[in-house]
Amino acid sequence: MLRKSSGREVSGPGSLDAFVFDMDGVLLDSSPIHAAAYVEALGALPIHTFQYSRLAGLRTKDGIRRILLENSIALAEREIDSIAAAKSKIALERTVRENPIVPGARVVLETLSRRCKLALASSGSAASVDAFLDCNGLRSFFQCVLHSDDVVSAKPSPEIFLTAFHRLGIAPEKCAVVEDAVAGIQAARAAGGVACGILATCAADDLEQAGADFIIDTLEDLL
Q1: pLDDT above 90 for 7
Q2: Which of 55, 148, 179, 223 has its CA 20 to 30 Å from the CA of residue 123?
Q3: CA–CA distance from 134 to each of 79, 118, 119, 189 (Å)?
């Protein structure tokens, strides 16, 4: 079900010219994998406070830094780099092995691609994005593919979405951004796009407070 969740005047998804999709938590049901990878990579540390939904959408190193801050743990940068690399390796190997693509994702992308331009804009690594696209044969649906190495500033910075809008050649207000995370919704709104929050990782209230224009239950709600 598609629900309007903000008071600003925006066009509905059915009348837009482009869709920009996040990957993890939107097209891939990978949030449990990433949560478990954080826990495993940080296993040697006294972590008492951990909530994955607060980290969703962030680069891994930024997520590690937030966890350490919330648990009052100070580490050298090289140690943070090592933990982040371990977390990414664990998550990538399990994601490739399990390939938890969201049911119906391929049909939704194929249907939308017949009438709109599509982009993929993920905070994930190049390796994780390439694995998702190639394992599922989805690359041809996207006119633009962006990952964490393509931008300087990660979500909630609007940079990745502004780059996607520019490459698609579509004005921000004519582009929907489909996100599961607070950081992603904040980035979409800051970029001027129509922010659609999908209920997968974060609660509806959190997505609405971040600025979501619409809330959807499933990808099919975009059709």
Answers
A1: no
A2: 223
A3: 32, 16, 15, 30
The model's pTM is: 0.94
- How many CA atoms, within 13 angstroms, populate the side-chain half-sphere of residue 184? 31
Burial classification of residue 76, based on how many CB atoms lie within 10 Å of its CB (0-12 exposed, 13-18 middle, 19 or more buried)? exposed
What does the pLDDT look like over 17-60, one tens digit per residue? 999 999 999 999 999 999 999 999 999 999 998 999 999 999 99
Three-state DSSP state, 215: strand
Pairing of strands 18-21, 175-179: parallel
**Which pair of tokens denotes residue 147?**
């990952």
User: From CA 219, how far away is CA 141, in angstroms rounded?
Assistant: 15
Centre a 10 Å sphere on the Cβ of residue 98 and count the other Cβ atoms it contains: 13
d(CA 174, CA 10): 9
Query: C-alpha 14: how far from its chain's center?
Result: 21
H or E segment and range at residue 191: helix 182-191
In degrees, rounded to 5, the angle at the alpha carbon of residue 121 between the alpha carbons of residues 118 and 124 is 140
- Express each pLDDT in 148-194 by its tens digit: 999 999 999 999 999 999 999 999 999 999 999 999 999 999 999 99
- Structure token digits, residue 44: 């040697």
